[in-house]
Specification:
single chain, 141 residues, alpha/beta, Nucleotidyltransferase, domain 5, 3 helices, 5 strands, globular
């Protein structure tokens, strides 16, 4: 099985999960059987300077599951529509979450209707830590 994790630095299976899926600098694809990894830059390969684009980055890969610490409702809905199951990370360590995933102990992410409930803005997925639009990392990977 291929499992996808958002990361900021590629340390293989020792990587730490990045806090927000949509703006992660990279995705680490891990084969759960062989533990082989592949790093994918979070941008559309055809438009690398356009900013974060998890859909463009991952569309060419077959993924059996995504494990993330945070993902907005609209991105979660889109990933589900693309056929990707998304699971809630239980720690920041990729390897711990991989083990929980293989043991079927990770909860599947559900739509929270956060914006409708007033818990975040409608553009939550499109803001960086400073509150401005877009991502806050370099796309010259």
């Amino acid at each position: 099985m291929k499992v996808c994790f958002p990361i900021s630095e590629d340390l293989g299976i020792q990587s730490v999960i990045y806090g927000h899926f949509n703006s992660a600098p990279f995705f680490l694809l891990v084969d759960s059987e062989t533990r082989e990894t592949q790093t994918v830059s979070n941008c559309d390969p055809h438009e690398p300077f356009a900013g974060c684009n998890p859909f463009g980055a991952l569309k060419a890969y077959e993924i059996d599951g995504i494990i993330a610490a945070g993902m907005g409702d609209s991105v979660l809905q889109a990933m589900n529509l693309c056929g990707h199951r998304v699971f809630e990370a239980q720690s920041e360590h990729l390897i711990e979450n991989m083990e929980l995933f293989l043991e079927k102990k990770l909860p599947e992410s559900e739509i929270q209707n956060s914006a409708a409930a007033g818990r975040c803005s409608d553009g939550e997925e499109d803001t960086n830590e400073s509150g401005s639009g877009g991502c806050d990392h370099d796309h010259e990977h």
